[in-house]
Amino acid sequence: MTELKKTNDATSLQGKFDADVKECLDKPIQEAIGSDKIRILRHNFAEVSVDDGIRGTSVCVDLAIQNVSELTIASATFKAHFYDMEGNILDSVEHKVIELEPNVSRLIHIKTSITEYEKIIQIIGYKVIVTKLKTVNEEKVHLRRHEIRTIETGEEVTGIVKNISGMKTDATIIANFYNYKEENIGNKVVLLKNIEPNSIKKFHFIFKPEEGDTVSSCSLFVSDIEECE
Questions:
Q1: pTM here?
Q2: What is the dotted CATH code of the domain comprising 141-227?
Q3: 3-state class (DSSP) for residue 218
Q4: CA neighbours within 13 Å on the CB side: how many for 208?
Q5: Which long-range contacts (CB under 8 A, 24 or more apart) does 120-124 make?
């Protein structure tokens, strides 16, 4: 049975992530480490089907996790290292989980990014840790969907945000626009007022680039401001 470990400091784990790997050559490394807020209920290797037209299989780590804190976890980032039989890291993958409520469990899959079959079959071990974690006290509003399209008056951006906290909240959306050379050609800040607890809010705005500029892409960042009265 694989040993499950727990720590009270998710960020301090990063420095220990690869400690003593070379001393574990007698058995595959198969380890998942939780935190003071996330418990690892179980973990194991799993094969997944891929449509690459050649072999059709890959590998991933299946994790059953549970929020054991009293607050909703707004976001948590897991990092998985995949090892060969000699303890060498063949691949590293990050996986983000959002909106995990207290006492709720969830199954997640972290798949290797390796596509070459000859390298996939060398993977025999893994190690997973929590590298970042924020509760709703730190991160109340999430961007759930957005799209951009060109209209006669400029670039139309629409989308949806969700307030995952239990209090009414204001938020700002910061949009950065880029041309085909990936140069920043402008930005826009939009204020969303009075987003109700545990509810979504739609947004819509138009960005008009300077004459001669053409928008190729757009990036959006959302930040909650403060608790509303």
A1: 0.76
A2: 2.60.40.10
A3: strand
A4: 3
A5: 120/55, 120/57, 120/58, 120/59, 122/84, 122/85, 122/90, 123/59, 123/82, 123/83, 123/84, 123/90, 123/91, 124/28, 124/83, 124/84, 124/85
How far apart CA 165 and CA 168 sit, in angstroms, is 8
Assign 71 to helix, strand or coil.
Answer: coil
> How many other C-beta atoms can be found within 10 angstroms of the C-beta atom of residue 38?
24
| 227 vs 208: CA distance, rounded Å | 32
Chain segment 3-48, per-residue pLDDT in tens: 444 455 555 555 554 554 444 445 678 999 999 999 999 999 987 7
Please report, as a single letter, which amino acid is at residue 213: D
Tell me the pLDDT tens digit for each residue of 206-224: 999 998 899 999 999 999 8
Helices (H) and strands (E) in the chain, counts: 1, 13
11-135 adopts what CATH topology?
Immunoglobulin-like (2.60.40)
CB 87 within 8 A of CB 81: no
Q: How far apart are CA 32 and CA 105, in angstroms?
A: 16
Enumerate the CATH 2.60.40.10 domain ranges in the chain, comma separated: 141-227
